Amino acid sequence: ETGVTQTPRHLVMGMTNKKSLKCEQHLGHNAMYWYKQSAKKPLELMFVYNFKEQTENNSVPSRFSPECPNSSHLFLHLHTLQPEDSALYLCASSQDGAGADEKLFFGSGTQLSVL
Amino acid sequence: KQEVTQIPAALSVPEGENLVLNCSFTDSAIYNLQWFRQDPGKGLTSLLLIQSSQREQTSGRLNASLDKSSGRSTLYIAASQPGDSATYLCAVRRGGGADGLTFGKGTHLIIQP
User: Fold this and answer.
1) Which residues in chain A (12-51) have CB-CB distances under 8 A to chain B?
2) I want to staple B4 with a disulfide (CB 3.0 to 4.6 A). Which of A77, A96, B17, B104 is the partner?
3) Contact call for residues B19 and B11 (beta carbons, < 8 A)
4) What are the residues whose beta carbons fall under 8 Å from the beta carbon of A82, sequence distance 6 or more?
5) B66-92 as b/e: b if 16+ CB within 10 A
6) What is the pLDDT of residues B22-34, one digit of tens each?
7) Using an 8 Å Cβ cutoff, are A91 and A31 in contact?
8) Do residue B101 and residue A103 have CB atoms under 8 angstroms apart?
């Protein structure tokens, strides 16, 4: 248990559905991240939030909409997804990004399948 | 744009062997480098973090080294065990602040009992 909890663990959705992924961290961190892991590709950074403010959007399509209501919670709202969006979506957190010895802690991920 | 390459992509060795996993990166201006372990269908577990000013870090049977100027890092696993079977990922961080990591594709390691 890393202190980062993601729900649901698995999600199957149609292309016209709207769903949300949830991430909660219990580590007192101030920075949170969304990553996408597709088969045979490196993990791709999607979004970064620091002290609830979005600091990075890595050219992610608008069908993915992040929300960070507070430093402990991060959501990824999904709508009109494509089959190629099927992947493992990982949430991570870190203290505040300022320290050179600062580690990222990851959740177990949500395995998303888009039909 | 930073690119991270891990060699080999897959490795299968008998239990008890010592082994080395390799990671290279194209931009040497990194803040730190982190090695992770990922079990199938699971998230990532941080193994070791090396700051850009450091040369190596050790944890138990694991030793990671960093040669920033040449853009290389190695993860040494001593006396391998079947429980070490997993995918090992190398990632570099470009700067301070809440900055994301750039990952390699990983090395899929199997330790044969």
Assistant:
1) 30-31, 33, 35, 40-43, 45, 48-50
2) B104
3) yes
4) A15, A63, A114
5) bebeebbbbbebeebeeebbbbbbbbb
6) 999 999 989 899 9
7) no
8) no
Beta bridge mates, A18: A79
- Over residues A9-53, the pLDDT tens digits come to 999 999 888 999 999 999 999 999 999 999 888 999 999 998 888
Residue B8 C-alpha, separation from nearest chain A C-alpha, in angstroms: 14
Q: Give the contacts of A37 (CB within 8 A, at least 6 positions apart).
A: A43, A44, A87, A88, A89, A90, A109
Three-state DSSP class for residue B66:
strand
Which regions of B8-106 does DSSP assign to beta strands (E)?
A: 10-14, 19-25, 32-38, 44-51, 56-59, 62-67, 72-77, 86-93, 101-103
What residue in B sits closest to A88 (Cα-Cα)? B41
Nearest Cα to Cα of residue A97 among B21, B99, B25: B99
Backbone angles phi, psi at B106, to 5 degrees: 100, 160
Cα–Cα nearest to A102, from B51, B37, B27: B51
